[in-house]
Amino acid sequence: MNQAAHNKLVNFIWNIADDCLRDVYVRGKYRDVILPMVVLRRLDALLEPTKEAVLEEVKFQKEEVGLTELDPNGLKDASGYVFYNTSKWTLQRLHDTATNSQQLLEANFTEYLNGFSPNVQEIIEKFKLRAQIKHMAAKDVLSEVLEKFTSPYINLTNKEKLDPEGRKIPALTNLGMGYVFEELIRKFNEDNNEEAGEHFTPREVIELMTHFVFEPIKTELPPVMKIYDPACGSGGMLTESEKFIKDPEGEIRASGDVYLYGKEINDETYAICKSDMMIKGDNPENIRNGSTLATDEFAGEHFDFMLSNPPYGKSWSGDMKYIKDGKDVIDPRFIVQLTNYWGEEETVDATPRSSDGQLLFLMEMVNKMKPISQSPLGSRIASVHNGSALFTGDAGGGESNIRRYIIEKDLLEAIIQLPNNLFYNTGITTYIWILSNNKVEHRKGKVQLIDATSSTGSCGKTWVTKTVSLRQNT
Questions:
Q1: DSSP at 85
Q2: 420 and 427 in contact (C-beta within 8 Å)?
Q3: CB 128 within 8 A of CB 84
Q4: Residue 296 CB neighbours (<10 A)
Q5: 3 state DSSP class of 58
């Protein structure tokens, strides 16, 4: 989909809120309807071509095989995806058969939602979509919203189609769908003055991170790659990472298999991320919901690449009871071995102050690095932080222990200071930390410091760089 078609689609969806929801929801709640309906329409559009095949499979399992509980594997095979819908309804059919009775439409819509597979049911629950459908029906706007999302003038399918005037509307690829989500989330965040960086990392920053992570070893990528984001939001970093290394027109064009993993605490953004994984054919079970700090969801797992923009300046006191018992750290992710003044190794606390948990996410990724004994390439990490990760904490404190551990283990490859005002609604200074447990020989014992504040590097300007030798400065 070209940029003009993309902008037209985003603007059409964006305007649905003002056209249909103005007197039904306060402006800050528009996203509660628009985002889940976009997800639902996309899933619905993908399932439409195989709808009859799924219904035939349901009939076969019930009447000919005599199953009292449907076999999901047969239904997935019939739908062609890892999700399915066993009801007779599609959104188009709901619209075409709608009458003036909002109550009947609500009942049919609910029957349609109930027909989805369990993995989609979870998304519906996280979005609280049933409550939104009930509210819109009560306010007499459900049919109007449904009409907009099934409009013949927009195309949320993965096939090219014609509008009523015979004009071609390009197909919406899975990548294009991701960009639509990204743009809508950005617009809602800006419109509602959301906290900076809490939900959305600008695409330019993600693109820069993928270059730093993958380009240095682009000729040595393993045949199977596992990528992880412990604060994955709507999945932008995971999606862009996969695109960067698999793009047939890109520099790398990797032929290996890529598996994406992530965890997200916010229900709405988790639902968007999981649905995006479903749509693209990735395994949605690798995306988990909940606090990364409270539960080690991927204990025992190790990843080749990790990219993240963890929340900074945000309290982790709610997770404290899972990490510490009094003064003792009970989660092994946040304990490190350091050498004391007398040359003896001791176990020390690697937890920052409770008002800012960003370095805990960094330690989660360090904990998930592949040992060189397991993978010759080890692991590479790119993580976005603000200045406090560099400077806060007294010597011997948690922040200091984390920084000391990363430097003494020679994991820190580079720190890049980014230009201000890259992140929406904030001018704070941010940095990308690049970590590797398999540095090339000429980088060992050194950290490269890059000042990219005056330029993004795309206009022929040169970044100011400095390489610090750790051996000379310990």
A1: B
A2: yes
A3: no
A4: 16
A5: helix
**Entry pTM:** 0.86
In sequence order, what are the residues at sequence separation of 6 or more whose Cβ sits closer than 8 angstroms to the Cβ of residue 449?
A: 414, 415, 417, 465, 466, 467, 468
Written as six digits, the tokens of 425 are 């609604």
Beta bridge partner(s), residue 469:
446
What share of residues in the chain are helix, strand, coil (percent, to 5)? 45, 15, 40
- Give residue limits of the domains in the chain: 3-180, 194-469
User: Which residue has 């014992």 as its token pair?
Assistant: 445
C-alpha distances in Å from residue 32, one per residue of 24, 196, 198: 12, 19, 17
Report the C-alpha gap between 58 and 61 in whole angstroms. 5
For domain 194-469, the CATH class is: alpha beta
List, for residues 226-272, the tens digit of each pLDDT value. 999 999 988 889 988 998 898 777 777 777 789 999 999 989 889 98
Determine the residue type at 262: G
141, HSE (Cβ side, Cα atoms, 13 Å): 17
Alpha carbons 121 and 127: distance in angstroms, whole number: 10
